[in-house]
Amino acid sequence: MLQPWLAWDRDAILQGEIWRILTGNLTHTNWAHLLMNALALLIISFIFRAHFNAKRYTALIIVLSIGIGGGIFATNMQWYAGLSGVLHGIFAWGAINDIRTKTKGGWLLLVGLIIKIAWEQTYGGSASSEALIGARVATEAHLIGALIGTSSGFINFFSSQQDPKKQHNRPN
């Protein structure tokens, strides 16, 4: 298995294995963790498909992955694996873009995400998720991903305010 070489590991990164900043988001603790994140990626991608094209989606995932991988250094985490931080970032970005394009439910999705993140920061991750993935839920990554996704969404929101052609940038 590649996980020992790719997971986010503070000590390994500090010793020069900087690829782990990016690849930690691509590794998982077990098959259930991988399947859960893959299904969430499919669902979130479907929900916000109107806002993405391949180039924008790839760039967002890379920005989120590197931002989360770097942001985890501000926490006490020593080890991390999973896509959930990126998923929270994509969700936040999509909700902001729903709001930007006046898509019904955008505000509800954003408020729901804020409530979820606040709950996790207060009470921790879901015990059932922790049992399923065999690890502590990395709520720090969820928060960092949501903050980066929200920031990226607002950058897109305000840049589209400057350029009327970007107001309804929905790929065919």
TrEMBL record:
The keyword Transmembrane helix applies. Residues 16-155 form the Peptidase S54 rhomboid domain. SUPFAM superfamilies: Rhomboid-like (SSF144091). It comes from Photobacterium profundum 3TCK. The chain crosses the membrane at residues 31-50, 57-73, 79-96. This is Peptidase S54 rhomboid domain-containing protein. Pfam families: Rhomboid (PF01694). InterPro entries: Peptidase_S54_rhomboid_dom, Rhom-like_SP_proteobac, Rhomboid-like_sf, Rhomboid_protease_S54. One of its GO terms (cellular component) is membrane. Its main location: membrane. GO terms for molecular function: serine-type endopeptidase activity. It is found in: Membrane. Keywords: Membrane, Transmembrane, Transmembrane helix. It comes from the Bacteria. It is a multi-pass membrane protein.
